[in-house]
Amino acid sequence: MKPLRPTGANTVNARVAEANRIHRQAAMSFYVAGVEHVVTNDWFDIDNDEEFYQLCSYTSGTGGLELYCVNSIVGASGKHSDMNLTNGDPRRGMAVGAIVPLTTLAHELGHGCGLVDMYKFDSGDGLVSEENTGSPNWSGGSGTGYHAPGLAYRTLSYRSLMHQYNSTEIPLDALTVMLGTNREPISVGIDQMATREPVH
Fold this sequence. Notes:
Layout: H1 9-23, E1 45-46, H2 49-56, E2 67-69, E3 72-73, E4 78-80, E5 94-96, H3 104-112, H4 130-133, H5 153-158, E6 175-179, E7 182-186
Parallel strand pairs: 1-3, 2-5
Antiparallel strand pairs: 4-5, 6-7
């Protein structure tokens, strides 16, 4: 990963360490391959997608993931480029704000693996059940499952790495959300990772 300042090396290393702790669930690990300092105020605060894509185009083809550390990103703690951009497109990249949860980088790496934001959807009401969590995330029923009896499904969904920037769990399989009156699976689990080698 090649981070761009203003974040100091200690913060970058702490974010990478936290990403490693979280992504160990998916047998993944990361390291800092190099640091490049960019002296410019043009991308210190990212105000829109155009600025973000200009930033991501600063350096490309590094052979690794590009992580840009900026002061702030309007409306977000971190940002990942659109996964519909073709592989090798110079606009691909990730950015993380200076004062955000350490887990933000891990969340953005989830996008690099093809996972989607769960917080954009309604988790729905009710308790944790096999119907809500899917069979791979469920292990037997009340009193015998992985999750405590009486745990609200909404509470469980908040623990998903792809739900919030301060959450850390990567489920084995998709979790469900409400789309209209139906429950539909959403790609937030290890089984939905298009790759365990994140791309951007």
